[in-house]
Amino acid sequence: MGRLENKVAVVTGGASGIGAATVRLFVAEGARVVIADFQDEPGHALAAELGASTVFAHTDVTREEDVAGAVDTAVSSFGRLDVMFNNAGIVGAVGGIADTALDAWERTVAVLLRGVFLGMKHAARVMVPQSSGAIISTSSTAGILGGLGPHCYTACKHAVIGLTKSVASELAASGIRVNAISPGSTVTAMTSAVITGDHTATEAAAKQIAAGSLLGIPGIPDDIALAAVYLASDEARNVTAHTLVVDAGQTTVGGLGRFHRQPAGLMAEAGRRE
């Protein structure tokens, strides 16, 4: 038996990156999955690759009718909804605060926050009557610390964590767990574009990410997919309102331990060694 045997999931942004890795792993663990994405070609290709355990639903997460439709597709195709993974995202508005255009800001909020709200809303519509379910949303290390992402991205990812806690407090009484995942730097086309300027330069991005990692390895989409499997599974039955950080210690350690590599001794006044 897989860890997600007989569960039905919707994964937004499921056609590429972290979403596609999660869809593959969910299916490998026994789930049936709606791949919800507005990238039609890769979405259909992934569904064809994985077969009868998946179906593709064209979904723009900024449109309520699309998100509602993805949830309804899960019910009509597979009979229920057990897991909603609100994962779709963009980098969004970049640049200084004084130069940020309102339309770019609002488009970013629509994808990164409205999309999560709509996913939670329509998942709850189905999960509350069945008195069970798991809702997971992708935040970021930028949702924990400032300076790790653009202004609007950072604001939205903080908001995802706050919304996760708030909705968890409501839905717990209905047997529904609500959690978030905060990935650190993870090798995807989106992060490759940010790091190297080329969305196809994943190997170069991986080297740069590994060089700055406390563990000396790059984060990969499967790292986040494994976290999502745990939160979606019955293994996490006592976990809700939690943000699972997968970042090689970036947001808690804060450095690569320069003092640990010093010769043992004592540094006294004015840097004098004893």
Question: How do the helices and strands line up, and which of them pair or pack?
Answer:
Elements: E1 8-12, H1 17-28, E2 32-37, H2 40-50, E3 54-58, H3 64-78, E4 83-86, H4 102-130, E5 133-138, H5 151-171, E6 176-183, H6 189-196, H7 202-211, H8 221-232, E7 243-246, H9 250-253
Helix pairs in contact: 1-8, 3-4, 4-5, 6-7
Overall geometric form: globular
The H/E string reads EHEHEHEHEHEHHHEH
CATH architectural type:
3-Layer(aba) Sandwich
The count of DSSP E runs of length 2 or more, i.e. the number of strands, is 7
Proportion of beta-strand residues: 5-15%
Given as residue ranges, the uncertain stretches (5+ residues, pLDDT < 50) are: none
The total number of structural domains is 1
* Span of the ends, CA to CA: 60 Å
Average of pLDDT: 93
Widest sheet: strand order? 3-2-1-4-5-6-7
Helical fraction equals 40-55%
Counted by DSSP, the helix tally is: 9
CATH topology: Rossmann fold
What is the CATH superfamily label? NAD(P)-binding Rossmann-like Domain
What is the alpha-carbon Rg in Å? 20 Å
Biggest sheet record = 7 strands, parallel
Would you state the CATH class?
Alpha Beta
Specify the structural class. alpha/beta
Describe this structure in words.
The chain has 274 residues and is of the alpha/beta class. The protein has one domain: NAD(P)-binding Rossmann-like Domain (Rossmann fold), CATH 3.40.50.720. It contains nine helices and seven strands. The chain has helices at 17-28, 40-50, 64-78, 102-130, 151-171, 189-196, 202-211, 221-232, 250-253, and strands spanning 8-12, 32-37, 54-58, 83-86, 133-138, 176-183, 243-246. A seven-stranded parallel beta sheet has the order 3-2-1-4-5-6-7, with helices on both faces. Strand 5, helix 5 and strand 6 form a beta-alpha-beta unit. Helix 3 (64-78) runs parallel beside helix 4 and helix 6 (189-196) crosses helix 7. It is globular and about 70 Å long. The termini are far apart. The model has no long low-confidence stretch (mean pLDDT 93).
